[in-house]
Amino acid sequence: MATASPASDGGRGRPWEAGLVSWPTAPPLTLPWTWMGPSWGQHPGEIIEFPILKLNGRTMEIESTFHMYVQPVVHPQLTPFCTELTGIIQAMVDGQPSLQQVLERVDEWMAKEGLLDPNVKSIFVTCGDWDLKVMLPGQCQYLGLPVADYFKQWINLKKAYSFAMGCWPKNGLLDMNKGLSLQHIGRPHSGIDDCKNIANIMKTLAYRGFIFKQTSKPF
Question: For the whole model, what pTM was predicted?
């Protein structure tokens, strides 16, 4: 499930970013979502965009895409600030599946892509720890939904970048793209565009010889 983590700015709403890396031959996935946060006058925060990019574990090229918008159920009306920041308008979420339904479709997609095969080792890659440590578990707990085991371990791309480059990317994807002389793809705070930026940064670091390792601690 890509941009600066909300945790870096006091919990303000941001797109959720992450990716899934599988090896030796299974693909990584970038998976950012966009959400409405408490600082926008909405509590609890709710995920409103859920994109995933599946990457080839050797080439880091995109192999498959999962992308859905999510109907918020606690606060179904988007705030003007949310729309201004993310580009997501009310019509894009009205009538869309709930988070529970989207998570069910994620599981179906993961199975179709072979990512639930016990012989395939995989892990998500996120831009920060917020998405999988706080945001998804928190909303699932509020709604009484289970959190799949594959969401419980991840690589924080900010930490990976800092290990590789020797400096912390305070402004998330923008700093990482700048540090690697990469052009930022698309619109900041767009979930699907953030995914593409995460994938591009991962590919660049991998081509430089960086080896990704899990950064999260066991739940």
Answer: 0.84
